[in-house]
From TrEMBL, chains A, B:
InterPro entries: HAD-like_sf, HAD-SF_hydro_IIA, HAD_sf, PGP_euk. This is Phosphoglycolate phosphatase. Mg(2+) binds at D33, D35, D254. It comes from Eucalyptus globulus. Signal peptide: none annotated. Its cofactor is Mg(2+). GO terms for cellular component: chloroplast. The active site is at D33, D35.
Length: 308, 308
């Protein structure tokens, strides 16, 4: 996929009514990031529900592409439902799903196991794909003690370690994952994503998967295979499902280094919303070299911009 | 300090009796790393005690330079004592001490606090230097929950975060340290060291401080100030204490990227021992570009080499 860099160098303009009309007419699908775009923690961002209804009423396909790996697609669909938004599993592409699909398309043997540093979402998606996940929430309360004459054992049949956001990270999991990667021949090191921080709650940001992934990079001195944004790995599945050309999609996200870069890497149009981690000053910082096609404050600006 | 690179490019030779006689006569002090050189976990490596006695009897100064920050110098002296070796606090230069000294020589204000991700050793050394350490073991059992309308509070008077090896690492500490570095203006990010793994127990290696430091790099997108090896920061204190020229010191360690590089950066002679994390094949791997002056199996080889 080509790298879309028409705006490289120039600062992105704010989305005007005219720009949005043009954008709206030129795309068939809107791809949305979730955290910081649709919701913050468990709170829906104002006006999102009406905006999504409006887009659907105009025949636009809606797709949700999230680096959040703590939930499976099924659990994400439930979360949407609990917030009053009807979204089907098929419309959701999460990095938990991407991790399972990476193993599948690379013919990862079914008799090998997968050690998970991360949430239930990864374990669930692995299981749906036919794989056995170890670790995850189950190892959240385990402890690792330094004792003489005592070996910390790990499963030699683990052939991949998947690392995602893990609020129950501990030394046990770090040692387990590190041993698998260092000692099991050919063991894969897969990162759901490398986001530094995220809006896990409405009021502030918290360390993201980039924190746990970096920890394992630090202990193993290895670099991971990244399956979430900005990697375009998920795009292949999305294209198969929706059969829309990338230039007729618009990626809407709050992060430059994952969402906007993902959109650009895939050749989509890109729109940054300022309702999440990126501030206007960060966008306009001369050190920032990732510029979306446009930016706006929040998703519900769409309604005002079209006079809907 | 000049970079000592006389052996760069050439593979290090094993230490012969002739080499060791020459080395022995040309140095006044032996600088030893501890983990993997003196002990593994709580087990003394065979013959270490007799070797240190012998070196002292021949008038050599012994200095212990360790990246292990879990203990203060006082606690390290106790550990030596419990293993039957008499070492004074003055002979120990630990990265916990280095972290406190870094703040001191940089006039870190006494009314600012220091948040610690790491062990009691860092807290103790900070206190000895007149500083108030927060976190450390005290935060080992704290949990951080994602709740709506709930702010994770942090102390705005924290002016430095010190990160070292922490077997009780958790999401609470990661969020606390991340918030201080991201939100407290001018907050320093100090790493005791960046060792990937270490022989925390006799039978195997475990994630080292490099794991926790990388996690904070991942969430803050900042690089730390490193005070332990291979940084030569500690060397200034060592020189003040012992008044021996660097070329008349020999650094003995088991790690290429911390011990040997530290010795070379400081202009010392260097000897790798294979009793810790580095294998002979790792030393001789063409991809390895750090070559000590010599290597040998273990410290007690000194006795055989001199026919003592």
């Amino acid at each position: 996929m080509e790298v879309h860099s028409s705006t490289a160098g120039a600062a992105a303009p704010p989305l005007s009514p005219g720009d949005f009309r043009e954008l709206f007419d030129s795309v068939d699908a809107f791809l949305f990031d979730c955290d910081g775009v649709i919701w913050k923690g468990d709170k829906l961002i104002d006006g999102v529900s009406q905006t999504l209804d409006f887009l659907r009423s105009k025949g636009k396909k809606l797709v949700f592409v999230t680096n959040n790996s703590t939930k499976s697609r099924k659990e994400f669909a439930k979360k949407f439902g609990s917030l009053g938004i009807s979204v089907s599993e098929d419309e959701i592409f999460s990095s938990s799903f991407a991790a399972a699909m990476y193993l599948k398309v690379n013919d990862f043997p079914l008799d090998k196991k997968v050690y998970v540093i991360g949430g239930e979402g990864i374990i669930d998606e692995l299981q749906l794909a036919g794989y056995t996940g170890l670790g995850g929430p189950e190892d959240g309360k385990k402890t690792a003690e330094w004792k003489s004459n005592c070996l910390f054992e790990h499963d030699k049949s683990v052939g991949a370690v998947v690392v995602g956001l893990d609020p129950f990270i501990n030394y046990y999991k770090l040692q387990y994952g590190t041993l698998c990667i260092r000692e099991n021949p050919g063991c894969l090191f897969i990162a759901t994503n490398q986001d530094a921080v995220g809006h896990m709650t409405d009021l502030q940001e918290w360390p993201g998967a980039g924190c746990m992934v970096a920890a394992i990079c630090g202990s193993t001195q290895k670099e991971p295979i990244v399956v979430g944004k900005p990697s375009t790995f998920m795009m292949e599945f999305l294209l198969k499902k929706f059969q829309i050309d990338c230039p007729r999609m618009c990626m809407v996200g709050d992060r430059l280094d994952s969402d906007i870069l993902f959109g650009q890497n895939a050749g989509c149009k890109t729109l940054l919303v300022l309702s999440g981690v990126t501030t206007l000053s960060a966008l306009q910082d001369p050190a920032n070299d990732i510029q979306p096609d446009y930016y706006t404050n929040k998703v519900s600006d769409f309604l005002d911009l079209l006079g809907a």
